[in-house]
């Protein structure tokens, strides 16, 4: 069935929800689509019904405010709806949605894509052992279910998330065995000028670190996990010091724990923008490949707009403002006058983006990081492909992500490349002697999300199926 809306927004995180509200305030009909049950995205993920009474965190407060604004607005929120295909058409775009087991089509005169980011984990031996979680993924457990990763957790990774996750585990009553981060104290000191633009966030981060230090949690700066121990469950990790380019060096040390939160920063999700026909450029300081976009979320295609972490990792505060700018740009495209509003918001956005980009810089991969992935390490977990399998494919002539994908199915499993794509691209770049900018991600194909065949087939009666007459003998 075909529905219509002036504006459709994919993604109800800080960027998408604010884009929807901004366009709706100018009188346009807006449909906000997200596969999550509630508005809030990753950072302001809503609590499940079972933990509603749990004390509020700054994330819950910000998320509740946004959820209330959307509830009180004219925005139509389609929750638990997955966009699996985007087709540009005369006068806008058609979105194919999967909701309540049915596939529907929504036609929109303007489309705003706000699909956020995904986490990158540099594969290390044993990272697929039960008890290993993504660092960012672990935040979803706390926020939505108040569940801890384990009883004694090693928390390892780059950027501010490593301290947030460790401090949340402690606040919720778990034990943090150690914090292990490839960043040095010097990396953080270099970010201070940019961080000074948001003293509130700087203070919050300082409190996380102070809490860990005062409670005696060891923090290993400029170190990385090099192996996860345990057959059916994490029993501990091996870790080593890193050189300035993040190559492992020196003696192997070990620490016991029953769980590990591991992450190496975020990368923008670009597949929806690519399906809509937008090109990409490589921007390491923004997290990798980003869709081409102009000022205020505009793109080369007049009816398509982008905002939030999907355009480069700048964090939630920047995503909120970028969302508003993109919503206003979409309203302008449909005939509203939003120039004054956008001019006022732009400086706010620049300040927020400055802070977020400095944090993203802490996860900028250095050459040695890839050396943590040994030959026998599983890289594509859906297809159980090791680094050696992928290197052999590249050596046999597969010099692009599309070639590795079609040769080995890396990226064709249920995760759609979420877990392996960045590592595979970096392996190709290394083998071919180029940079990551020479290895674009594979061509995206529908479905963007898994769709059951029965949802595509719809309701039908077998007796209505036309049966061709037998061919004459
Ligand atoms: C797992 C994870 C956890 C994070 N946790 C934190 C944190 O605790 N603190 C912090 O400061 N930053 C965190 N971040 C970074 C944070 O996501 C961003 O800075 C901020 O949320 C960006 O807002 P956004 O609106 O651009 O994207 P998001 O908040 O990621 O919102 C994007 C939304 O798009 C939806 N979506 C994507 N594709 C589709 C589709 N095809 N169909 C329907 N819906 C779709 C997603 O369900 C999601 O709700 C996290 C990132 C990730 C990946």
What would you say this structure looks like, in words?
- It is built from 13 helices and 21 strands.
- It is of the alpha/beta class.
- The protein folds into 3 domains: 210 residues, FAD/NAD(P)-binding domain (3-Layer(bba) Sandwich); 142 residues, FAD/NAD(P)-binding domain (3-Layer(bba) Sandwich); 59 residues, no CATH class.
- Strands 1, 2, 3, 4, 5, 6 and 19 form a 7-stranded mixed β-sheet that branches. A 5-stranded parallel β-sheet has the order 8-15-9-10-11. A 3-stranded antiparallel β-sheet has the order 12-13-14, with no helix packed on it.
- Helix 1 runs parallel beside helix 2.
- The longest helix is centred in the last third of the chain and has 23 residues.
- The structure holds flavin-adenine dinucleotide.
- The site of flavin-adenine dinucleotide (FAD) has 36 residues, from helix 1, strand 4, strand 7, helix 3 and helix 8.
What would the keywords be for this entry?
seven-stranded mixed β-sheet; 473 residues; 13 helices; FAD/NAD(P)-binding domain; FAD-dependent oxidoreductase; FAD/NAD-binding_dom; alpha/beta; globular; single chain; 3 domains; Metab_Enz_Cyan_OpOx_G3PDH; oxidoreductase activity
Number of domains: 3
- Proportion of beta-strand residues: 15-25%
Molecular shape: globular
The CATH homology group name of the largest domain = FAD/NAD(P)-binding domain
**What CATH architecture of the largest domain would you give?**
3-Layer(bba) Sandwich
Provide the gyration radius in Å: 23 Å
Count the DSSP helices.
13
Largest sheet: 7 strands, mixed
Mean pLDDT equals 95
Secondary-structure-based class equals alpha/beta
- Indicate the CATH topology of the largest domain: FAD/NAD(P)-binding domain
Bound molecules: flavin-adenine dinucleotide
Domain FAD/NAD(P)-binding: 6-313
Region (Disordered): 432-453
Keywords: Oxidoreductase
InterPro entries: BFD-like_2Fe2S-bd_dom, BFD-like_2Fe2S-bd_dom_sf, FAD/NAD-bd_sf, FAD/NAD-binding_dom, Metab_Enz_Cyan_OpOx_G3PDH, Opine_Oxase_asu/HCN_bsu
């Amino acid at each position: 069935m075909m529905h219509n809306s002036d504006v459709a927004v994919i993604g109800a995180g800080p960027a998408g929800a604010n884009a929807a509200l901004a366009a709706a305030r100018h009188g346009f009909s807006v449909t906000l689509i997200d596969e999550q049950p509630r508005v809030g995205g990753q950072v302001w993920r809503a609590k499940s019904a079972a933990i509603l009474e749990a004390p509020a965190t700054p994330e819950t407060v910000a998320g509740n405010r946004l959820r209330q604004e959307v509830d009180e607005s004219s925005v139509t929120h389609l929750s638990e709806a997955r966009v699996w295909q985007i087709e540009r058409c005369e006068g806008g775009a058609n979105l194919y949605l999967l909701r309540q087991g049915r596939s529907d089509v929504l036609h929109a005169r303007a489309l705003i894509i706000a699909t956020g980011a995904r986490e990158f984990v540099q594969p290390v031996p044993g990272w697929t052992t039960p008890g290993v979680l993504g660092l960012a993924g672990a935040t979803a457990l706390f926020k939505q279910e108040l569940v801890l990763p384990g009883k004694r957790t090693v928390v390892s990774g780059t950027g501010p998330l490593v301290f947030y996750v460790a401090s949340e585990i402690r606040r919720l009553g778990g034990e943090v065995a150690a914090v292990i981060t490839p960043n040095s104290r010097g990396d953080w000191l270099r970010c201070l000028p940019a961080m000074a633009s948001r003293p509130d966030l700087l203070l919050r981060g300082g409190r996380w670190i102070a809490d860990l230090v005062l409670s005696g949690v060891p923090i290993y700066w400029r170190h990385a996990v090099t192996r996860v121990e345990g057959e059916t469950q994490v029993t501990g990790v091996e870790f080593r010091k890193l050189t300035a380019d993040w190559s492992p060096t020196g003696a192997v040390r070990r620490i016991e724990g029953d769980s590990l939160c591991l992450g190496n920063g975020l990368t923008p999700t670009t597949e929806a923008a690519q399906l809509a026909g937008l090109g990409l450029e490589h921007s390491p300081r923004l997290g990798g490949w980003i869709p081409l976009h102009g000022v205020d979320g505009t793109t080369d295609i007049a009816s398509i707009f982008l905002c939030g972490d999907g355009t480069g990792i700048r964090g939630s505060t920047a995503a909120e403002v970028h969302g508003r700018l993109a919503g206003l740009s979409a309203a302008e495209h449909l005939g509203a006058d939003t120039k004054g509003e956008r001019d006022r918001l732009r400086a706010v956005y620049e300040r927020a983006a400055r802070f977020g980009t400095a944090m993203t810089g802490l996860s900028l991969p250095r050459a040695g990081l890839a050396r943590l992935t040994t030959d026998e390490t599983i890289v594509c977990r859906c297809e159980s492909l090791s680094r050696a399998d992928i290197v052999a494919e590249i050596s046999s002539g597969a010099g692009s992500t599309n070639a590795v994908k079609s040769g080995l199915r890396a990226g064709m499993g249920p995760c759609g490349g979420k877990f392996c794509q960045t590592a595979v691209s970096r392996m190709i770049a290394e083998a071919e002697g180029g940079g990551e900018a020479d290895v674009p991600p594979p061509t995206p194909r529908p479905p963007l999300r898994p769709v059951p065949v029965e949802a595509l087939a719809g309701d039908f009666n077998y007796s209505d199926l036309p049966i061709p007459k037998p061919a004459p003998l």
